[in-house]
Every structure is written in structure tokens, then in C-alpha cells.
Design a protein that fits this description.
The complex is a heterodimer of chains A (about 260) and B (about 325). Chain A is mostly helical and about 260 residues long. Chain A has helices at about 5-10, 15-35, 35-40, 45-50, 50-60, 65-80, 80-100, 105-110, 115-145, 155-180, 185-200, 205-215, 225-230, 235-255. Classes of the chains: A mainly alpha (about 260), B alpha/beta (about 325).
């Protein structure tokens, strides 16, 4: 069970992962119960009366009247921030948190290379996010079944994959700050995520907002169309890039810099 | 005879921003020795140890362990090192056995039988969660993770903090057994009686610089001794001693036929003088390591323990 750093993190954080899984599944399940009411509410009249900024934020209201549109916008769109928050919290705990508490130093006193520890922690992060995304998706799917709407499970894999990449990107950015030894990396990433989330929500307002949104992973996360059109390959590549780049930067600096020893 | 060195630090310098933590620190630790690394808080002990373990990089200079530079071979060197940090951080969620097993697996040399033996000798219950252990018992877990792979070099920073005297004595026994088996020990501790009991050599560091390196014999010979002599013609004897030793001698008391004084350095000339007098009684007390330590760090200001601080505060309040 505790054969390496990867297993140890997962074992140590098992309850955290479990409760976040339950929370993600519960929230999406409950949110799905609102679909019948919401689809009636967001009819054409309300959409027309809404200010342009709100319309931009909520997207095309017609999509909310279909189960696919509702899942894309309300579940994988608005609730995606839950998984992102988990990724930031988890990513912050495994490098910066362990360095601050001294646990990291205790591990690195053993014959283990720094890049190995960093890489194992990254794998742990991706596995933990994967579990939460599964919970998130299962909650949504079960929610859809209980309200009597049938959505093929095969339609969920693309938004689930996009959500996984999005959250892993933010987790990787938090890990990068830990790798660089910058204090408050979790807070910085959290702020960056919220700003990105808001910018992406309002990207239809202007080109400037849209351009700014593309400075964050949220800019490449178009949840409205995931259920109907699937993943856009170029956006997917960008989301992958938002994972690889910070991980590489964090890894390179982490293997060379001075560790905090007090 | 060729003397092997396990640690060789050459002109280690480390700066943190504008602060110079170490300046040209050079020293050697003989293979198979137990070497004490002494200095007040902030002298540079932990920084030096961190460089030896590859946690931080020296700004200039190089350290070699087992003949290999630590800046290049840090990981393979650590395979043969047992390191105990001051207040070593452990995972509260694991049991002592799980934590020890994890570190054993990381080091790739987990010997369950030896772990059980160490736990028994240090009176540690391996089934308890670390979060529920006292400071002393947490320290025992840390000690076992440090010793369990029978390392060739032990680097210990305050190893017996929080341990009761019985367990501390057992730990000393284990260390001496490991030395007999060929392990080199590099130890830093503020418990000077412990250092005095264990070490063959002493390295003194002050303000990031090595100020002295002494063997036990050198320290004993060079340390201050309190000497009391009862003899005839004591005035003449005292005058001759003062002429011979000049500044190295400090007269404490001269009463009747008895003279008491302190002497620093070699005592051999004193025995030559004594042959000329009819001595009826003589007593020589060597200074303890603590007294030598205070001598070296007199101007630094030794950090006060909470107990002394409380005493001072009480005195102040009384006034």
C-alpha cells in the first residue's frame, strides 16, 4: 500500500478524495433535479428580456431547454468550478503544503530524486481529479435518469474529459507555484481560476474579453457545445498545453532550487 | 596510516539574499568517528547539514561524502546516509509502523526484524497513530526511520530532543554499536553532556565560520583546568607558576599552604615545577565541554532556555 510517494499521497488523502467525490456527485445530482423547472423558466420571453451581459453569461438560452444544453451549460459549465477548486486545493497541499510542514524534506532525505517525487505527486493529482470528475459525471447521469430524461452515457465522456483537463491544468499551475517555492500559490491560482471563469462566462460580450479569457484554461473550455458537438481538437490541445507547460516549469525549478529547511 | 574521510567540506559559502549564512566552511569527518558539530542557534549548523544532504546548494565551495561531490551524486549518497532533522515532520494520519515502512520502501532497504528490534529497545508502540504520540515518541519514530537501514553515515541534528534519560541512554548505546560496526556519525546537539559522552572530535562553528576543530585529547589538554595544590613554600611556588604560565594562569585563592588556580593549555610544565616542592595534596579538575563551549562562544550570547528566561522574569517581577 505504501510502496511509494504516489500510493502514500492517495492513501493519506483518501478521505478527502472520498468526500469530494460524494460532494461532486450530490451537487450535480441535485442540480439535475432542477432541469424540468429551469427548462420551463428559460423560455424565449425571459431570454429576450434579459440584459445582453446576462445573456452572454448564461449563453444561448435555447440550449437550457434541452437536457444536453442544460448539462453542458449548468452542470459542466457553471459547476466545473467545484472540480477546479478541488484541483487547486489538492495541488497546493502536495508540494507547497508538504514543504511548509517539513514532510517533503523528510522524504527527500531518502534516496529519491526530486523529479521522481514531483512526478509521482502530479500523477496522484491527476488520479484524484479523475475520481472527482467520475463522481461529478455519475451524479449528473443518475440525476438525468431520475428526472426521466434519457441521455446516452457515451455522450458524457467528452465533457468529462474536458473537465478533467481543465481541472488538471489548474492543479498543475498550483503545483508549479509549489515547485517554484512561491508562497500562496494556491491563492494565486484560485484567483486566476475565478477571473478566468468570469472572463470565459462573458467572452461573448466583446473580443477583448474573449482574448483575455484565452489567457486561462477556461478560455478553451466551451461546455455549451460538449454534449452536442463534442470536443474541439485545438481547444483540447490548448488545455493539454496548460497542463504540460506549468508542470515542466515547476519540475525544472523544483529539481534545482533550495528547499525550505526551517 | 591512511586516514579515510567520510565527509569533506571545502570552502562552503552560502548566502540567502544579502545574508551570508556560511563563509568558507571547511572541515573533515573521519570515517568511523563520532564528530560533534557545535555552535549556538543561527551559527550555520543546519545550513551546513542541508548542503551535505543536497537540500540546498552551496553558493560556492563543494562538499564530498564518501569521496563523491554532493552537488552531483546527492541521491546515491543519500542511500547510505541516515539523516535526522531537528523536529522531523511526520504524517499524523499514519501509524508509526506505516510511516516507518513507507520510509523503508523509499530507501529500498526495509528490514522489518531490525525495525522491531529498534522499536523494542526504544520502547515504542508501532501500532499507534503518529498524531496521537507524544513529542518523545514521535522522536523515536524519526530515530527508527533514520537508523533502520544501517547507514554508513549518520547525520543527526538534535537527535534526542524530547527523549527521556533512559531512552536517551539506549539511543547512545545504539549509536556506539553502529560506530563499532563502521558507521560514521556527524551530530549536532545542544545537550553538551551528550556530545561530550559520544564524540571523538568536535567542530565549532560561529557566525557561519569554523572557529576550531579539536579532538577529544586536544580539547582536554587545551581546556581550562582548576588546580588545587597543598605544598610547602606555597608563595614561592605560586610566583614560579605565574612566571612560567604568564596569562594562562589565574589565581583563585591562596590560603595557608593551599593554592587554587585555573590553568589553560598544557599542564606538563606544572609537573616540572612541582618536582621542586614537597607536595602533600593535588587535585586537577578538567573543564567540561560545556565550559569549553562557553569559552568559545562567550561573546556570541548563548541562547537562553525557557527555564532561565522564566527565572529571570521572576527575578525582574520580584524587583
Amino acid at each position: 500500500m505504501l510502496n511509494n510517494a504516489l500510493c502514500k499521497i492517495l492513501f493519506e488523502k483518501r478521505w478527502m478524495i472520498f468526500w469530494w467525490f460524494i460532494a461532486a456527485a450530490s451537487v450535480t445530482f441535485m442540480m439535475m433535479q432542477l432541469f424540468p423547472t429551469m427548462s420551463d423558466l428559460f423560455d424565449v420571453t425571459i431570454t429576450e428580456e434579459m440584459p445582453a451581459a446576462m445573456q452572454a453569461m448564461f449563453g444561448d438560452m435555447d440550449t437550457l431547454t434541452t437536457i444536453e444544453g442544460y448539462v453542458g451549460v449548468q452542470i459542466f459549465g457553471d459547476l466545473a468550478i467545484i472540480v477546479v477548486i478541488f484541483a487547486v486545493v489538492f495541488g497546493g497541499a502536495i508540494i507547497a503544503g508538504e514543504e511548509k510542514s517539513g514532510v517533503l524534506l523528510t522524504q527527500l532525505a531518502r534516496p529519491i530524486k526530486r523529479h521522481s517525487i514531483f512526478f509521482q505527486k502530479f500523477i496522484a493529482l491527476t488520479l484524484a481529479i479523475l475520481v472527482i470528475v467520475i463522481g461529478f459525471t455519475v451524479g449528473t447521469f443518475l440525476g438525468a435518469i431520475t428526472i426521466g430524461d434519457s441521455v446516452s452515457l457515451s455522450k458524457f465522456w467528452q465533457p468529462a474529459l474536458a473537465l478533467f483537463l481543465l481541472a488538471t491544468g489548474f492543479g498543475a499551475i498550483t503545483m508549479m507555484f509549489g515547485g517554484l517555492g512561491i508562497k500562496g500559490g494556491g491563492l494565486i491560482t484560485g484567483f486566476y481560476a475565478v477571473v478566468g471563469y468570469l472572463l470565459a462566462s462573458m467572452r461573448d460580450l466583446s473580443d477583448t474579453v474573449s482574448t483575455l479569457a484565452h489567457g486561462t484554461p477556461f478560455g478553451f473550455y466551451s461546455s455549451q457545445t460538449f454534449m452536442t458537438d463534442g470536443l474541439d481538437p485545438s481547444s483540447t490541445l490548448w488545455l493539454i498545453g496548460f497542463i504540460i507547460l506549468p508542470i515542466l516549469v515547476g519540475l525544472i525549478i523544483f529539481t534545482k532550487r533550495d528547499l525550505r529547511t526551517t | 596510516m591512511l586516514i579515510m574521510r567520510t565527509i569533506r567540506a571545502q570552502k562552503l559559502t552560502k548566502t540567502f539574499g544579502k545574508v551570508k549564512a556560511l563563509t568558507d566552511v571547511s572541515f573533515e569527518v573521519k570515517t568511523g568517528s563520532i564528530t560533534g558539530f557545535l555552535g549556538p542557534n543561527g551559527a550555520g549548523k543546519s545550513t551546513t547539514m542541508s548542503i551535505l544532504l543536497g537540500f540546498i546548494n552551496a553558493t560556492s565551495g563543494e562538499a564530498h561524502i564518501f569521496g563523491r561531490p554532493v552537488s552531483i551524486n546527492s541521491t546515491s549518497i543519500r542511500r547510505r546516509i541516515g539523516f535526522l532533522a531537528n523536529n522531523m515532520a511526520l504524517d499524523n494520519t499514519l501509524t508509526a509502523a506505516q510511516e516507518i515502512k513507507y520510509f523503508g520502501k523509499l530507501a529500498d532497504n526495509y528490514d522489518e526484524t531490525y525495525v522491531k528490534e529498534l522499536a523494542e529497545r526504544l520502547s515504542l508502540d508501532l501500532t499507534r497513530k503518529i498524531g496521537s504520540l507524544s513529542t518523545g515518541n514521535r522522536q523515536k519514530v524519526a530515530l527508527i526511520t533514520t537508523l533502520m537501514h544501517r547507514p554508513k553515515l549518520l547525520i543527526l541534528d538534535e537527535p534526542t530532543t524530547g527523549l527521556d534519560p533512559i531512552v536517551r541512554a539506549e539511543f547512545h548505546k545504539i549509536i556506539l554499536e553502529m560506530q563499532d560496526a563502521g558507521t560514521t556519525v556527524f551530530i549536532s546537539s545542544h545537550i553538551l553532556s551528550e556530545i561530550e559522552e559520544l564524540c571523538d572530535e568536535f567542530i565549532f562553528i560561529k557566525n557561519g565560520r569554523i572557529i576550531a576543530t579539536k579532538t577529544r585529547d586536544e580539547l582536554t589538554n587545551q581546556s581550562q583546568k582548576k588546580i588545587t595544590i597543598e605544598a610547602k613554600y606555597i608563595d614561592k611556588f605560586a610566583t614560579e607558576c605565574q612566571r612560567t604560565f604568564e596569562d594562562d594562569i589565574q589565581l583563585i585563592n591562596k590560603d595557608g599552604g593551599v593554592v587554587t588556580f585555573t590553568l589553560t593549555g598544557d599542564v606538563q610544565p606544572l609537573f616540572k615545577i612541582l618536582t621542586k616542592y614537597k607536595v602533600t595534596n593535588i587535585s586537577i579538575e578538567s573543564a567540561s565541554l560545556e565550559e569549553s563551549f562557553m569559552e568559545y562562544y562567550r561573546d556570541v550570547g548563548i541562547p537562553q532556555t525557557p527555564a532561565t528566561q522564566t527565572k529571570k522574569r521572576k527575578k525582574k517581577d520580584a524587583k
